[in-house]
Structure formats: structure tokens, C-alpha cells
Design brief:
This protein has helices at about 10-15, 35-50, 85-100, 120-135, 155-165, 180-185, 190-205, 225-235, 265-285, 300-305, 345-355, 370-385, 390-395, 400-405, 405-415, 435-440, and strands spanning about 55-60, 60-65, 75, 105-115, 135-140, 145-150, 170-175, 210-215, 240-245, 285-290, 295, 310-315, 315-320, 325-330, 335, 340-345, 360-365, 385-390, 420-425, 425-430. It is of the alpha/beta class. It has two domains: about 1-25 and about 370-459, Arc Repressor Mutant, subunit A; about 30-325, tm_1862 like domain (pyruvate-formate lyase- activating enzyme, Alpha-Beta Horseshoe).
């Protein structure tokens, strides 16, 4: 499989507009409060009847300090005592949800995100993992993909050893940028020594995959300063990179109002940074997975993409397309069967539901036949840059050219621009179209027209 990318400035400028990241289809904007506890239980029953492995996502919302760019659902506090009642509720939710899923269903994927999961003490993390093992069928060996997001400022050699002992075998390190002026502008002071000590400790303890998170488009960044950060990280050769485009949306995320908009790099500078990133990473031997992600050619993501087995969910790219995803904790989103569901976003409401013995689901959406069809199309394109009309026709009993006549007509301009190859057999995304894969997927999104202003720009 050709996993290369081509940077075409003129095309990128022409197609740079707002759109979803497609960690789900329909997107989370379609979740509504007409879907609650009863609907969720119904989909769990259908899921158990179908069987198959599970994926668990745990949201740990606490952070010691606020990073001004952050758009995550977090609670900023230096008082570690705040974690105790939340952990009590989370363990109760694990017990409630675990009782609803067949115990023999193996958990092939597990992820702790946040916030800062290592805000918890070792004793608290051990309690959380022990409770999970009590109520769900976790692997006792390293076959599962058990990952955690860590802030190197909140982590040391001892913590890494403890995480490995608890069963984690993949780790993602938040970094964003090493430049001291950028760090000061976004209120995240973090040294190279801290970061690389954690990376080296993870390797020493036998973590199977290491990922570094970077963000381009932060205040005071230039192509030269970001290149320096990237070169310093490349010297340590993590298995994966997640390099995100900073979306400045202060009307939605209050902490972003602390950023001086005059310091943000211009669109032209952001494009220079993006082009530099793609060049340096491909020169270093990494392949472009898609949607800001790069990996070494022998990494599981890159292998899964070449084998046509890559998937995308709320945590990003995944090798476990066969798993139903259970969201646990405040604001978590899950996907069980043909439905998406989300827990309460506020701690007080989450606490009230748990205290009353109710599942804390407060909204969701049930997918209809058209949703499932479009989800399959979008997933194939965003994961594999390739779509066989015949496979979709066989799976969904449709005639692709008839069902998607309007969409195919809209794709002709992208074909003419060299973003895709398009014929009667299918769609092949060309190297020039891979950075713009969101645009191609957007053609198949029936909900997009009325919601576009709520998404970040694709580049």
C-alpha cells in the first residue's frame, strides 16, 4: 500500500474549511436527550446477543494546572482529595455496567484518558484497575491493547513501573511544544528532561508502543521553532506521533480566552509548519496514518492500515474494529451495537445518577440503516484511503451509483483536482488528497450542512 502524502499548497488553501474529525458517524453533535438508560440497556442486550470483544474508555477529568489551548472536559484543581468521591462513583458505575455485559466477553482494548489519569495516586489507580478486573474480563497477559495518556510533569520512573504492573502496555505522552516562549503562552512549562525520562522509562518497563502528542498553530510558533521541537523528539524515535492542528474556539472553550489571538501564527505559517512536519517525519521513515497521525512502518497501526483492518473511534485510530466501546466516567462517550451514548458532563449530575443507582447516560443516538451505511463508507475512506463500491453493495444490498448519485457527482471536482481517483469500481484517495481526507468524507455526511459552523477547520 502507498502510504505517502503530497503537500499541495494551492489545493489545501482551496479546501481548507470547517468539518468533523469523524471519530464517529453520526458525530457527537447528533446525540440527543431522548436517548437514556432504557435505550442503552436495550442496545446492551442486542450487543450481548451478538457477542464479541469489548473496549473500555475511562475518563479521569482532573488536572493540576490548566493548559490554555485545552478543549478537553477537565476539572482543574490542586486538591487531590477531589479525586476520592469521583473514584467512588466511577467504581460504582463499573459495577453497574459490568453487570449488564456478558462476563465471558474479553476486553481487548482499554484506555484511560482525561484530564490527567496520573492525577490519581498509585493506590487509587490500583483500586480502579482491580475493580475493572472484578467486573470485566480483562486479559492477564499482554494480548490486550491497554493504553494510558500521561503528562510527563505528573509522571516519573516509579509511576511508569506502577502503570506497567497494573497492565498498561501502551503510553501516550503529552508534550505540544518545547519552545519556552510557546510553553509560557499556553501555561504549560515542561522540560525535555522530564519528557524523555518518561519515554525512556516506558521503554525500559516494556511498553509496546510510545506516542508523543504535539500541537501546531499555538501562539508564537514558527516553522523554525516547531522544527526544533520535532527534531528533538525524533532523536528519541517514538513509535507514533499525534500532531494536531490547534483549533482556536474561545467562544466554546473558556480557557482559550487566556490566549492572545495576536500571537497566533497566521494560516500561511501553519501551513509551513504542516508541510515541514510531513517532510521531516516521512524523511525519518514514518508513514502517514491519517488525521494528524504518523507511525513507524512496523507499528500496529501502520500494519493494520496496510492489511485493511484499521478502525476509528472516539480515541482515534484503532486496530479493534470488532469491539463495542463502553464509556465510563463523566462525559464519556461509548458505542454499543448500533448506538452512541454519552454520560453526564457535569460532576453533580453524574453523582446524582450514580447515587440513585441509575446509569449516568443522559443522551445518545440510535443509528438507522442510512447511518450505518454512511458510517461504513466514511470509515473505509478515513482509515484506508480506498473504497470498493462492490464491497459496500454486497454488505448493504444497494446499488452504490444509484444510492449515492448526488455524492458521486459532487466528488467529480475532487477527482479533477487530483484528490481522488474515481471510477465505476470505487474511490482511491491520492497522496494529494490524504491531508484533506476530512473533506472527502464530508461529501457523504448527510448531517453536515446545518452543523458545519460548529467544527474546526480541516487544516
Amino acid at each position: 500500500m502507498d502510504q505517502s502524502i503530497k503537500f499541495d499548497l494551492e489545493l489545501i488553501n482551496r479546501y481548507d474549511k470547517s468539518g468533523p474529525r469523524y471519530t464517529s458517524y453520526p458525530t457527537a453533535l447528533e446525540l440527543h436527550e431522548g436517548f437514556g438508560d432504557a435505550e442503552y440497556r436495550r442496545h446492551i442486550a442486542k450487543s450481548n446477543a451478538a457477542g464479541g470483544p469489548l473496549s473500555l474508555y475511562f475518563h479521569i477529568p482532573f488536572c493540576d494546572t490548566v493548559c490554555f489551548y485545552c478543549a478537553c472536559n477537565k476539572i482543574v484543581t490542586k486538591n487531590r482529595a477531589h479525586a476520592a468521591p469521583y473514584l467512588d462513583n466511577l467504581c460504582k458505575e463499573i459495577a453497574m455496567q459490568g453487570a449488564l455485559f456478558d462476563k465471558q466477553r474479553e476486553v481487548n482494548q482499554l484506555h484511560w484518558g482525561g484530564g490527567t489519569p496520573t492525577f490519581l495516586s498509585y493506590e487509587q489507580m490500583k483500586r480502579l484497575m482491580d475493580t475493572t478486573r472484578e467486573h470485566f474480563n480483562l486479559h492477564d497477559d499482554d494480548r490486550g491493547e491497554y493504553s494510558i495518556e500521561v503528562d510527563p510533569r505528573e509522571t516519573n520512573d516509579k509511576t511508569i513501573a506502577q502503570l506497567r504492573e497494573l497492565g498498561f502496555n501502551r503510553i501516550s505522552l503529552g508534550l505540544q511544544d518545547f519552545d519556552p516562549d510557546v510553553q509560557k503562552a499556553v501555561n504549560r512549562m515542561q522540560s525535555k528532561e522530564q519528557t524523555f525520562a518518561v519515554l525512556e522509562a516506558a521503554r525500559k518497563e516494556g511498553f509496546r508502543s510510545t506516542n508523543i502528542d504535539l500541537i501546531y498553530g499555538l501562539p508564537l510558533q514558527t516553522e523554525q521553532t516547531f522544527a526544533k521541537t520535532l527534531e528533538q523528539v525524533l532523536a528519541y524515535a517514538p513509535d507514533r506521533f499525534s500532531i494536531f492542528n490547534y483549533a482556536h474556539m474561545p467562544s466554546r472553550f473558556k480557557t482559550q480566552r487566556q490566549i492572545d489571538e495576536a500571537d497566533l501564527p497566521s494560516p500561511a505559517v501553519k501551513l509551513e509548519i504542516l508541510q515541514m512536519v510531513g517532510q521531516k517525519l516521512t524523511d525519518a521513515g514514518y508513514v502517514y496514518i491519517g488525521m494528524d497521525h504518523f507511525a513507524k512502518p512496523d507499528d500496529e497501526l501502520a500494519v493494520a492500515q496496510r492489511e485493511g483492518k484499521l478502525y476509528r473511534n472516539f480515541q482515534g485510530y484503532s486496530t479493534h474494529s470488532d469491539c463495542d466501546l463502553i464509556g465510563l466516567g463523566v462525559t464519556s462517550i461509548g458505542r454499543v451495537g448500533d448506538a452512541y451514548m454519552q454520560n453526564h458532563k457535569e460532576l453533580e449530575q453524574y453523582d446524582q445518577a450514580i447515587s440513585a443507582g441509575r446509569l449516568p447516560v443522559f443522551k445518545g443516538v440510535e443509528l438507522d440503516a442510512d447511518d450505518n451505511l454512511r458510517r461504513a463508507v466514511i470509515t473505509q475512506l478515513i482509515c484506508h484511503f480506498d473504497l470498493s463500491f462492490g464491497n459496500i453493495e454486497q454488505q448493504f444490498d444497494i446499488v452504490f451509483a444509484d444510492y449515492f448519485a448526488a455524492e458521486l457527482n459532487n466528488l467529480k471536482s475532487m477527482r479533477d483536482d487530483g484528490l481522488i481517483g474515481l471510477d465505476e469500481a470505487g474511490i482511491k484517495v491520492q497522496p494529494a488528497g490524504r491531508l484533506l481526507i476530512r473533506n472527502i468524507c464530508m461529501v457523504f455526511d448527510k448531517y453536515l450542512a446545518q452543523k458545519q459552523q460548529q467544527f474546526s477547520r480541516v487544516i
